[in-house]
């Protein structure tokens, strides 16, 4: 990870032994080991979260949303008999079964 060879590790251990002494060296090694273990657990948890988020975002995990949409309004040609209004035979938008097929009223109230 840090490109540290065997000779360099021995030098670091000898310096730690000289600085800390034989009484405090095992305690310092335990603390360093626990910190390294805690960092590894945190990074593996973070990696798991990232992987699960990326798996949820991938399109291969479930139905495609574009395939499950319904058809929208369709554009058809002019009707067979033009409406009696002065607008002429314009294109008609078919909104499905909920739309009324009656032509719009041209009467005015009163």
Question: Which properties best describe this structure?
Answer:
mainly alpha; 110 residues; 1 helix; single chain; 2 strands; two-stranded antiparallel ribbon
Structure explained in plain terms:
The chain has 110 residues and is mainly α. 47% of the residues lie in helices and 5% in strands. It contains one helix and two strands, in the order H-E-E. It has one helix at 6-57; strands at residues 74-76, 92-94. The chain has a two-stranded antiparallel ribbon with strand order 1-2. It is rod-shaped.
Global shape: rod-shaped
Order of helices and strands: HEE
What is the averaged pLDDT score?
75
N/C terminus separation: 90 Å
| Helix fraction bin | 40-55%
Q: Report the structural category.
A: mainly alpha
How many E-type strands?
2
Alpha-carbon Rg, integer = 38 Å
Largest sheet: 2 strands, antiparallel
Approximately what portion of the residues adopt beta-strand conformation?
A: 5-15%
Reading side by side through the largest sheet, how are the strands ordered?
1-2
Total helix count?
Answer: 1
* Low-pLDDT regions: none
Compact overview of the structure:
This protein has 110 residues and is mainly alpha-helical. Helices cover 47% and strands 5% of the residues.
